[in-house]
Amino acid sequence: MVNQELAGRQPLLQIEQLKTYYPIRKGVISRTASHVKAVDGVNLAIYPGETVGLVGESGCGKSTIGRTIVRLEEPTEGRILFRGDDIAHYGSKAMKQVRSDMQMIFQDPYSSLNPRKRISDILAEPLLVHGILPKEQVAGEVEKLLEIVGLPKSYKNRYPHEFSGGQRQRIGIARALSLKPKLIVCDEPVSALDVSIQAQVLNLLKDLQKEFQLTYLFIGHGLGAVRYISDRIAVMYLGKVVEIATTESIFRQPKHPYTRALLSAYPVPNPHLRTKERIVIQGDVPSPANPPSGCRFHTRCPLAMAICREQEPELKGAQHSVACFASEA
């Protein structure tokens, strides 16, 4: 599941059979199912200094994985091993100690910032809550954080509504950096930004990774951004990871039918230079409250066989892992 460069190293983060279910209270769906299975038995390892991209359709569970890792959502089952310790069921006091090493950048840079607070207060808050610095040194650290993400220190007295989307996301990145974390979960951090601003933010994230030896889980649905920043990519479908490999392997030789369909829709500058035929997936995504038996993709897969409807494929392969019976045939 990992390439040769990572073989033998200990993962910074490892999730094992992670499940995050949401109870269904009332309604038509509740008559046939009791839970929405947003994440249903995911295994994934992230190694120090690397960026793992997590891609898939909207509603596949990728953002839920990120929020569960940092314990903004409670896991139903499974283990979340961070530096070897299982934090899946840590209490609030124990998680407070962990959160200085594990931070999150959110998709919407405006809603993630308190509109009633100045930027200086937003960036100072984690430093004060975690007791990172004496109070008299916090103001100087706030100015340093702004400069690190490419904003003038004079901006510290402004409110979030006075910034553009790209500037607000830089503030979100500065807040994530304030505690000097080891791991940052980036939940679609550029999807709400203009394309030109996306490139600036992605380059900033790459520069910060080198400077501070950061490790990223980069969640996104824009394949261009994920390809640019990721060392490895994990592809999700309906709560399951169906393929994991290096970015080069995923784009050069995808093995899962769902991955092939995703990449066939990847835009190219000149459509006449497209080397692969566009694959259109038929049908709708099944409900995560009542997923299909066997392989969850078999209801839409052009290569589905009888075994796909009866048995769930395991994620197999040392360096390029795929959960697909058709790829084994």
TrEMBL record:
<keyword id="KW-0547">Nucleotide-binding</keyword>
<dbReference type="Pfam" id="PF00005">
    <property type="entry name" value="ABC_tran"/>
</dbReference>
<dbReference type="GO" id="GO:0015833">
    <property type="term" value="P:peptide transport"/>
</dbReference>
<comment type="similarity">
    <text>Belongs to the ABC transporter superfamily.</text>
</comment>
<dbReference type="InterPro" id="IPR013563">
    <property type="entry name" value="Oligopep_ABC_C"/>
</dbReference>
<keyword id="KW-0067">ATP-binding</keyword>
<dbReference type="InterPro" id="IPR017871">
    <property type="entry name" value="ABC_transporter-like_CS"/>
</dbReference>
<protein>
    <submittedName>
        <fullName>Oligopeptide transport system ATP-binding protein</fullName>
    </submittedName>
</protein>
<keyword id="KW-0813">Transport</keyword>
<feature type="domain" description="ABC transporter">
    <location>
        <begin position="24"/>
        <end position="263"/>
    </location>
</feature>
<dbReference type="InterPro" id="IPR027417">
    <property type="entry name" value="P-loop_NTPase"/>
</dbReference>
<dbReference type="InterPro" id="IPR050319">
    <property type="entry name" value="ABC_transp_ATP-bind"/>
</dbReference>
<dbReference type="GO" id="GO:0005524">
    <property type="term" value="F:ATP binding"/>
</dbReference>
<dbReference type="InterPro" id="IPR003439">
    <property type="entry name" value="ABC_transporter-like_ATP-bd"/>
</dbReference>
<dbReference type="InterPro" id="IPR003593">
    <property type="entry name" value="AAA+_ATPase"/>
</dbReference>
<dbReference type="GO" id="GO:0016887">
    <property type="term" value="F:ATP hydrolysis activity"/>
</dbReference>
<dbReference type="Pfam" id="PF08352">
    <property type="entry name" value="oligo_HPY"/>
</dbReference>
<dbReference type="GO" id="GO:0055085">
    <property type="term" value="P:transmembrane transport"/>
</dbReference>
